């Protein structure tokens, strides 16, 4: 399915189900656009941190990739365990399960953009949010997705 349109549809659904979040986002948009002559400029979009939180929470709840498949490029011993990943071994990373694990995201099925406040992001392991994968094999769609979402913010 098409990533940007699906994400926007899920985002609109969550905003409809959570009017307090919708109101907070509306106020942010209204205040920021007032400072920018009503135009959703690049700078204006950069001044909408709550918008980013809402989008990130939407991507956590409804990531387009439920799993990531990778091939180990060198033998690797997992720290603090007896597990060894051999070179050439196929690895599946269950992103949906990680994004909905209460150890990392309490009440994982609750739509909570504040999970993406700077403080709460710092408290989490950096690899428990993987809507597009991570590292050199990150989905190239992320570049197109951010461009589309930025246009849709208008």
Automatic annotation (TrEMBL):
Give Gene Ontology CC terms.
endoplasmic reticulum membrane
Q: Which UniProt keywords apply?
A: Endoplasmic reticulum, Heme, Iron, Membrane, Metal-binding, Microsome, Monooxygenase, Oxidoreductase
Tell me one GO molecular function of this protein: monooxygenase activity
Membrane topology is: Peripheral membrane protein
| Signal peptide extent | none
Q: What is its main location?
A: endoplasmic reticulum
Task: Give the source's domain of life in one word.
Answer: Eukaryota
Q: Can the keyword Nucleotide-binding be found in this entry's annotation?
A: no
- Report the family membership: Belongs to the cytochrome P450 family.
Q: What does this protein do?
A: May be involved in the metabolism of insect hormones and in the breakdown of synthetic insecticides.
Recorded protein name is Cytochrome P450
